Amino acid sequence: MINKEWMTVLSQEKIAVNIYELTLKGELVQQMNEPGRFVHLKVNEQMMPLLRRPISVASIDKENSQFTMIYRAEGEGTKLLAQKKAGETIDVLGPLGNGFPVEAAQPGDTALLVGGGIGVPPLYELSKQLNERGVRTIHVLGFQSADTSFYVEAFSALGDTYVATVDGSLGVKGFVTDAIQQYGLEADILYSCGPLPMLRALEEAQLTKKGFISLEERMGCGIGACFACVCHTKSDPTGTDYRKVCSDGPVFPIGEVAL
Amino acid sequence: MSRLETQLPGLTLKNPIMPASGCFGFGREFSQLYDLNVLGSIMIKATTEEARFGNPTPRVAETPGGMLNAIGLQNPGLEKVVEQELPWLSQFDLPIIANVAGSQVEDYVEVARTISQVENVHALELNISCPNVKTGGIAFGTVPETARHLTKMVKEVSEVPVYVKLSPNVSNIVEMAKAVEDGGADGLTMINTLVGMRIDVKTGNPILANRTGGLSGPAIKPVAIRMIYEVSQQTDLPIIGMGGISTVEDIIEFYLAGASAVAVGTANFANPFICPELIEGVEQYLIDNKIDHISDLSGRSWKKDVKRAYHCS
Description:
The complex is a heterodimer of chains A (259) and B (313). Chain A is an alpha/beta fold and 259 residues long. Chain A contains 5 helices and 16 strands. In chain A, helix 5 (196-205) links the parallel strand 12 and strand 13. Chain B is built from 9 helices and 14 strands. The relative contact order of chain B is 0.16.
């Protein structure tokens, strides 16, 4: 069930360079189950920005009717969002999209969770739910540098956690694929979210038999009506077959969409 | 009769407020949010003879008070629309307006012939104004004689009234309106988007993969109002007005300019519940301002000889 609700800001904190952690409270949280879904936020009531901003859900706390997002304040919309203070309200539409299937991993399995930059947040709720299910999680987190990294300790509390930074200021110098190779990481299932080049590299590496990736795309409506965020499928890469990232995804089985 | 019930060629509308083509798909997504029966109609996504994937992404870019889009008429093609989308829509008590597009005259004629026979299609909207396809679309909507000819050909095969969607990307909108009226159009819908572009100052490249796109949203409302004001005084055709509507006052303004119904486009993206909210809001506005029927407002900005039935509050 998709709802629209004015949710209340409980806290907003800057946790790394340009990275904010925002926690909202409201009834809409009761609709949140699957990790990897997103909410669509109207950051103000003005005509600029006109459209909503899709932000992934980083953790869900149903008991207290609150959820947390982690986002990078980069464009006009997210910079306005970063100014929201505790007690203020935000127009939230959600939860939207299809998330990561937790049940695809069996108890006792090992899952490799690979995130790049602002693709890391949805993996946190995913890891929590996998661990509750008895799935062992290994995390590989990629960032530009140490000062833009976040949640490394939080992930470490849930399972082995490896970090790669482009400038080498934290963990392995290079990309997530370098860290995976260097430590010889193996798993039964892969879950990943991050920039397209990273997802392509993971798909080519064929680390696991099954895997799921979460895509990012400029969106209009966020509910599948406007056709702004479509992509081709792997089986019909130049034809008319398509998937909508917002409503068919953002999570897809590896090999379903053309990257 | 309610304050909102509206009769137009081919259309008996519970209310004159409907989602605009391309902003509502075929209704499936919004049906998860509210009961589509509250709408006056739905202008369904443009249908072409063959399925189209459309343009590469990025397909949208924001602008102050607006957005550019270059979707490129993505749709599943005539056969699937007729066999799957329209039958699905028949569960609702809605007269559907089918948006018809193509690359050449024969395409439009073929789509119009077939889709106009579907029971819940009560009118066609001839799309001669899409700026985002290489052939067809706007190419038919900027030369009066071409538009007149296409309208005439479609009218010959259509089982239902034909509304022509006008492009604002012309120097003389009245001439275009008169040309399609000559071609036998039953009504007009206006306006489609304005061709625009945004360039990423970091990369130096256009943001949209298609380079140019169609500008919609509140930013284009004054253009729509001006064009409806001009056209409604020069033709006898009813006008379904669109272009940046997002508030009750916007709808009133479109009526005052000369519209007989309105469609809501881009605003559905910012607030997916906007159509039902506006339908309730307009009814309340009419009650508050003691206006018996919304049609009393139509053209009031230029019908100076008619005694003003109300005063703007």
